[in-house]
Design a protein that fits this description.
- The complex is a heterodimer of chains A (about 300) and B (about 375).
- Chain A has about 300 residues and is α+β, with helices and mostly antiparallel strands.
- In chain A, about 55% of the residues lie in helices and about 5% in strands.
- Chain A is built from ten helices and seven strands.
- With about 375 residues, chain B is α+β, with helices and mostly antiparallel strands.
- Chain B has a four-stranded mixed β-sheet with strand order 1-4-5-8. Chain B has a four-stranded antiparallel β-sheet with strand order 2-3-7-6, with no helix packed on it.
- In chain B, a hairpin with an 8-residue loop joins strand 6 and strand 7.
- In chain B, helix 4 runs parallel beside helix 8.
- Classes of the chains: A alpha+beta (about 300), B alpha+beta (about 375).
Chain lengths: ~300, ~375
């Protein structure tokens, strides 16, 4: 048993981090916030890097890696706050033409919600329906980088454990990023003649950010290895909690600055709130875990 | 990222499982939790049984993964907990194994492993709890003079120690003393092995809020401790202690995580029986605790993997992350137990009621949550030290 990342996994993680630093740095993030549209060129660059085809067998033109590696890439995407229907397109690779290469943008209906509907070429799993489907109506999305449509009918989505885990991995990445942002601010911002990180109250906020991140990390990585439904529910529940509460605490550490549009913290918090509603909510995860009590 | 075990590790697990199934039914009944001499005899008996079967040395002689399997299987099978042997097996023993001379290892380790001697911990003081390095118990060299051999003479120790668990039934105490008051506080500390029957040692039991006398105050009045009982160099005790504490925070709680998972399953069963399972708020709370303890188990595996990779198997500071999360989860577990039990939770004869009271110590013992958060913030996150 060696739970740590292998050298290959570390290299994959570093490669993705480099790619995103080059193609989606903070400047690009803020530009996208000003003009929210899906970047097709970046989507294809992700395709070229194997982001979508990662888990397809090599014989089908894929990379032939597994869920643990996918989780590492999605964690990096979460760190960078990369927008777009990443999970649906990744899941569509191999079944929807062009998804694996990043030429086709695929979204999915998840409960009552569909993200990035206007920019997408395809909705995952939507077969021509015998009766006219209800028309999705746009809602004013809380997250400027996740356009949302709502379908007011009984949700038809079946639970998709892989989707929940890849969403959890993005939450983990976001939690790690807000931890870094909070610590970096606490080290440099001075008040009362010293860095605010010297104050115990701020220190303890930062310590809890780390505790949440590391707990979520082990839960997400373990679920990627075992694919056990209870591990998956654990991962989604704790990663949602880490992303949301880390963003909140990071905002608190930033004080008044944290409440402004210019700081990136609110973007992490809003995305975390969106993801917490996606694929497996806290209530669903908790019910699954409660039901699982008593099983070996 | 590999959570599988090697064929050899699986073989070890199977052997251990078979042995536990055969051995546990032959054990004597568990003693009354308030009867310390009986608990000492029971805990030492279990350690002797383990030793005779070749499992005595697993707490520090094995790889971290073997240790993990051992703790996992013994807890799953419902085997006795380390109990009075906690400090000897998980604390003083590993420290002497890592830092002692060959003679010292020969003197102290076999009696711990054979279930013959019980150790207690003399770290905290009334004026130095969380600020451990502020300890004031003094030790002065006598009899040999500065020029005599390194191991000659005695330390004469005077001071007060507090929160010493199992003191009444201990044979030895891992004692931190101040040997040089003139240097910065971390540098003048020495680690000594003190016999509990030495003249000048007075034990005053303290009653906990749970009603038990599991810990005590130690009054030390000119206690003579031979210099040969010193582990590590004089004034190097702080470094030796950090080795000890990293054990305490790293792997010492493995069995307890599994025990908590068992309690959680029993809670769910009880709730299903008494009708409280229909309360969605309570049911979801149980579900959340299930996630919590599953994640804590993964965190344990993560820490063991790190320890296995690290030199000499000393667990890293990541143990602080575990300790912080675990101590709160454990309190939450027993508060939830009270919600499941309802009025019955006020009855002291219910085991969970006593456990609920005991769990209050978890955010205090072995470094309070506040101190752990300072450690995490300063040593892992690199935030500046406060004034």
């Amino acid at each position: 048993m060696d739970f740590r990342l292998t050298d290959d996994q570390r290299a994959l993680q570093a490669g993705m981090r480099d790619l995103l630093a080059a193609r989606f740095d903070r400047e690009r993030l803020r530009a996208t916030v000003r003009n929210p549209a899906l970047d097709r060129a970046l989507w294809r660059a992700l395709g070229d890097a194997g982001f979508f085809a990662l888990r397809l067998p090599e014989s089908e033109g894929g990379v032939g890696l597994g869920l643990p590696e996918a989780v590492l890439l999605f964690e990096e995407a979460g760190r960078a706050l990369l927008p777009g229907p990443l999970v649906a397109t990744h899941l569509a690779a191999g079944s929807v033409p062009g998804a694996a290469s990043g030429d086709t943008v695929v979204t999915a209906r998840d409960g009552e919600l569909i993200e990035w509907l206007t920019d997408a070429d395809h909705i995952l799993g939507e077969a021509p329906e015998p009766t006219p489907a209800p028309t999705p109506t746009p809602i004013r999305s809380i997250d400027p980088l996740t356009p949302l449509h709502r379908v007011r009918s009984r949700p038809t989505t079946t639970p998709c454990p892989g989707a929940a885990l890849l969403t959890a991995a993005q939450q983990l990445g976001s939690a790690g990023r807000t931890l870094d942002m909070a610590v970096s601010h606490a080290r440099t911002r001075e008040q009362f003649g010293q860095p605010i990180g010297a104050f115990q109250a701020v220190k303890h906020l930062c310590a809890q950010l780390l505790v949440r991140t590391e707990t979520a990390r082990t839960a997400v990585y373990a679920a990627a290895v075992t694919e056990d439904p209870l591990d998956l529910a654990t991962a989604k529940l704790l990663a949602d909690e880490a992303a949301v509460n880390n963003a909140r605490d990071c905002l608190q550490v930033h004080g008044g600055m944290g409440f402004t549009w210019e700081a990136d913290v609110h973007l992490h918090l809003k995305r975390a709130w969106v993801r917490a509603q996606q694929w497996q909510t806290a209530a669903e995860a908790e019910e699954a875990l409660a039901t699982g009590l008593g099983q070996p | 990222m590999n959570l599988g075990y090697t064929a050899e590790e699986e073989r070890f697990r199977q052997e251990l499982r078979t042995w536990l199934a055969k051995t546990l039914p032959t054990l004597p009944p568990k003693p009354n939790p308030l009867d310390w001499p009986a608990r000492r005899a029971y805990d030492l008996g279990w350690q002797r049984t383990l030793y005779d079967a070749g499992y005595g040395e697993l707490h520090w002689g094995a790889t971290p993964t073997q240790h993990l399997i051992f703790l996992e299987e013994t807890e799953r099978a419902g085997a006795p907990y380390v109990g009075a042997n906690f400090v000897g097996l998980l604390h003083a023993g590993p420290t002497i194994a890592a830092e002692g001379t060959p003679e010292q290892r020969q003197r102290w380790l076999p009696p711990i492993l054979r279930g013959e001697e019980v150790w207690c911990q003399g770290f905290s003081e009334p004026e130095a709890g969380s600020d451990l390095a502020a300890l004031r118990t003094r030790a002065v060299r006598d009899g040999a003079g500065a020029g005599a051999g390194a191991g000659a003479g005695d330390y004469i120790v005077t001071g007060t120690k507090i929160w010493t668990s199992h003191a009444e039934v201990a044979d030895w105490c891992e004692l931190l003393v101040r040997t040089d008051p003139t240097v910065p506080k971390h540098r003048g500390i020495t680690w000594l092995a003190m016999p509990m029957d030495a003249p000048g040692v007075t034990i005053r039991p303290l009653r906990t809020l749970a009603g038990s006398t599991e810990f005590a105050e130690l009054l030390l009045d000119e206690v003579r401790i031979p210099v040969s009982h010193r582990i590590g160099e004089e004034n190097d005790g702080w470094r030796v202690t950090m080795v000890t504490l990293s054990f305490e925070r790293g792997t010492a709680f493995v069995g307890e995580v599994i025990a908590c998972q068992r309690v959680l399953r029993e809670l769910a069963e009880t709730a299903r029986r008494n009708g409280r399972w229909d309360d969605a708020v309570l049911r979801r709370r149980l579900g959340r605790l299930h996630a919590e303890f599953r994640a804590l188990w993964r965190l344990t595996q993560w820490n063991v993997s790190e320890a296995e990779a690290a030199e000499r198997g000393v667990p890293g500071v990541g143990g602080s992350v575990f300790k912080l999360r675990y101590s709160h989860a454990r309190q939450d577990l027993y508060d939830t137990a009270a919600a499941v039990l309802g009025p019955e939770s006020l009855d002291l004869s219910h085991a969970w009621t006593l456990d609920r009271l005991s769990s209050l110590s978890y955010t205090i013992a072995a470094g309070t949550s506040q101190i752990q958060q300072n450690i995490v913030a300063e040593r892992i996150l690199g935030l500046p030290k406060g004034r």
